[in-house]
Amino acid sequence: MKRIVIATKNKGKVREFQELFQEKGFEVISLFDLPNAPDIAETGSTFKENAMLKAEGISSQINELVIADDSGLSVDYLGGKPGVFSARYAGEEKNDQKNLEKVLLEMNGVKQEQRTARFHCALALAIPNQQTIVVEGVCEGIITTEPIGEHGFGYDPIFFVKEKNKTMAQLTQMEKNKISHRANALALLEKELQSETIL
């Protein structure tokens, strides 16, 4: 069975990638399964740069297929913030609850028509001895005034998706996998790989 390494220790992301890749016949492992994998600093100024840094850095060390994503929330009213700092927006220690609370505080009193935002995902697939493939996907939405829903992770409870009339956190995993920024990026990745032999 072909194996692909998901370069993350975010359990929510691991679960989403497992569902999307296992049906394609891949054995999916993550950094949880590779305790000696190098820790790659995300020093890029864009989602794309960070995804490439992670995928290529780990792939060069273990000589395996590695997929890395860098994703986050961009709020128009906040000038694109939290952006690449989405995971640590409220402080150096990752805390989903504090992050979304900070966004809600900064958006306090802002009218609905000014609350537009999008989830952005850059995916980089590092293939040993080949050029890295990079794709980017987005999902448009509106920032709510309070958290709604129990599913998902990160900013999902405050991200309202118009076409579903629900927040990301109210969607089932199957529903989310059809419309999310990560799903959109993966669909683009599939197209890129039509001529490749690895999928």
Automatic annotation (TrEMBL):
Cofactor note: Binds 1 Mg(2+) ion per subunit.
Residues annotated as catalytic: 70 (proton acceptor)
Recorded catalytic activity of this chain's protein: dITP + H2O = dIMP + diphosphate + H(+); ITP + H2O = IMP + diphosphate + H(+); XTP + H2O = XMP + diphosphate + H(+)
One Pfam family in the UniProt entry: Ham1p_like
GO process annotations (BP): nucleotide metabolic process; purine nucleoside triphosphate catabolic process
Keywords: Hydrolase, Magnesium, Metal-binding, Nucleotide metabolism, Nucleotide-binding
Molecular function (Gene Ontology), one example: dITP diphosphatase activity
Cofactor(s) it depends on: Mg(2+)
GO CC terms of this entry: cytosol
Annotated binding of Mg(2+), by residue: 70
Gene3D superfamilies with a match to the protein in the record: 3.90.950.10
InterPro entries recorded: dITP/XTP_pyrophosphatase (IPR020922), ITPase-like_fam (IPR029001), RdgB/HAM1 (IPR002637)
Entry binding sites for substrate: 8-13, 71, 153-156, 176, 181-182
Entry EC no(s): 3.6.1.66
Function of the protein: Pyrophosphatase that catalyzes the hydrolysis of nucleoside triphosphates to their monophosphate derivatives, with a high preference for the non-canonical purine nucleotides XTP (xanthosine triphosphate), dITP (deoxyinosine triphosphate) and ITP. Seems to function as a house-cleaning enzyme that removes non-canonical purine nucleotides from the nucleotide pool, thus preventing their incorporation into DNA/RNA and avoiding chromosomal lesions.
PANTHER family in UniProt: INOSINE TRIPHOSPHATE PYROPHOSPHATASE, INOSINE TRIPHOSPHATE PYROPHOSPHATASE/HAM1 PROTEIN
Entry's family note: Belongs to the HAM1 NTPase family.
NCBIfam families cross-referenced by the UniProt entry: PRK14822.1, RdgB/HAM1 family non-canonical purine NTP pyrophosphatase
Self-association and partners: Homodimer.
Name used for this protein in its record: dITP/XTP pyrophosphatase
Organism this protein belongs to: Bacillus mesophilus
